[in-house]
Amino acid sequence: MVLLTFFLFSLGQLGRVSFFNQQVNFYLYEVLIGILLLFYFLKLKFAPLKKLFDSQQWIFWGFIYLLISFFVKFFDYSLFENIVSFLYLLRLFFYFLFFTYLYFYYQKKEKKDLVLGFLIFSFLTIIFSFVQFFLYPNLRNLAYLGWDVHQNRVFGVFFDTSVAASIYGLFFLFWLNYKNTRYFWLLPPLFLLLYFTYSRFVIFSFFLTLFLFFLKKSSLRYFFITLVFLIFLLIFFPQRSGVGVNLNRFFSIEARIKENILGIKMGLKNSLFGIGYNRIRFFRQKNNLLWKSDFNIYHGASSFQSTYVTLFVAAGVVGLLFFGKGLMKLINGSKEFFYLIFFIAISSLADNLILHPFLIFILGMARTIFDKKP
User: Fold this and answer.
1) 246 versus 340: which is more confidently predicted?
2) Which among 370, 266, 349, 322 has a CA at the least distance from the CA of 63?
């Protein structure tokens, strides 16, 4: 069941099922993790939640706060808008439950099936991504569904270059930190795929994380070897046509800054409780803060470029504090997992990444594999 879950997860956006003009979505792998959650619950009953509540009560208070934040603005939105927003809040709680039970279930068990799932997913992702890069160079034929074109960039089956870059970086860091070096053959293709996303801030975050890793290992020469390889790609590998592959582009930086400033202004108007989880699209519609003609289906409309700005608008300053505490707990966890969560935490400054279902799934699995105790 676990391996099948990883296989369905490897389908990325191809395994997505949408309703109501793409405003409600779920993925096929989520059906299987729901079945797995039921199985773990029948095995463990309420013990994982009790143990977690005894040691980390603040997590439960955080979800209660999100619930309060949601209902504070309940009557400002239609019943349909409230249902859509609440479904995404339920998804967040669903992932929390699943990885809590998964974590405790594997505390005294071998994790070989999880590692094998990671290996299968890594291999399939590399294959699918290179096939996409050479045979399917853009998403122009899916632009009507709200996807950006991403001309001549790697986006794999994830249909978003920043998400794809984050996944390649996470895989690279996972296998770099994994105890068995026989999987290092995965590192070069993952590095190439990360570069060909041309997602600049994610690449910067990746190299910052690598620098910390090799500094800790007292092996900075490997960092500089990797940096030289990047410079070699920049100089000698011919860039393909398209605005997105131009690493000197400035318009996207300006657009991100303007959008995040807009988000901060929105957040300051509802700084305590925010507007409620996943209501940003509906708030923009009500206040004519639109920038896409097909706003209802544009996938970036439900968030801002930065995860932290998105959370500030959705849950206010208190919600942002709960999130920050969670990040600190994860960063202070296992030394191997530190590099993965640090990489995504930095990347999320410029892209809304850490709350993406794909990245929650990968981070949750990696934490279970690396951590040794509850």
Assistant:
1) 340
2) 322
In the block, residue with structure tokens 């199985």? 39
pLDDT value of position 164? 95
Tokens of 178: 């994994």
Distances (CA, A) of 163 to 60, 70, 114, 122: 28, 27, 22, 15
The two beta strands, 16-19 and 24-27, are: antiparallel
> Can you give the pTM of this predicted structure?
0.90
Length of the chain: 374
Given this model, what pLDDT does residue 103 score? 92
- CB-CB contact of 343 with 363 (8 Å): no
Three-state DSSP at 17 gives strand
Please, what is the angle between helix 112-135 and helix 357-370, to 10°?
A: 140
208, burial (CB in 10 Å: exposed 0-12, middle 13-18, buried 19+):
middle
- Percent pLDDT > 70 in the chain is 91
Q: How far is CA 72 from the centre of its chain?
A: 27
Tokens found for residue 263: 């988000």
Task: Give pLDDT tens digits for 165-189.
Answer: 999 999 999 999 988 788 899 999 9
CB 154 within 8 A of CB 42: no
Cα radius of gyration rounded to whole Å, the chain: 20
* Residue 365: half-sphere exposure toward Cβ, Cα within 13 Å: 24
The Cα 330–Cα 178 span in angstroms is: 18
Q: What is the per-residue pLDDT across 126-171, written as a single tens digit (0 to 9) for each?
A: 999 999 999 988 888 877 677 788 788 899 999 999 999 999 999 9
- HEC letters along 162-224: HHHHHHHHHHHHHHHHCCCHHHHHHHHHHHHHHHHCCCHHHHHHHHHHHHHHHHHCCCHHHHH
Round to whole Å and give the CA distance between 20 and 250: 36
Read off the pLDDT of residues 52-76 as tens digits, 9 standing for 90 and up.
Answer: 988 888 899 999 999 999 998 888 8
- Taking CA atoms, 34 is separated from 2, 39, 83, 127, in Å, by 11, 9, 20, 28
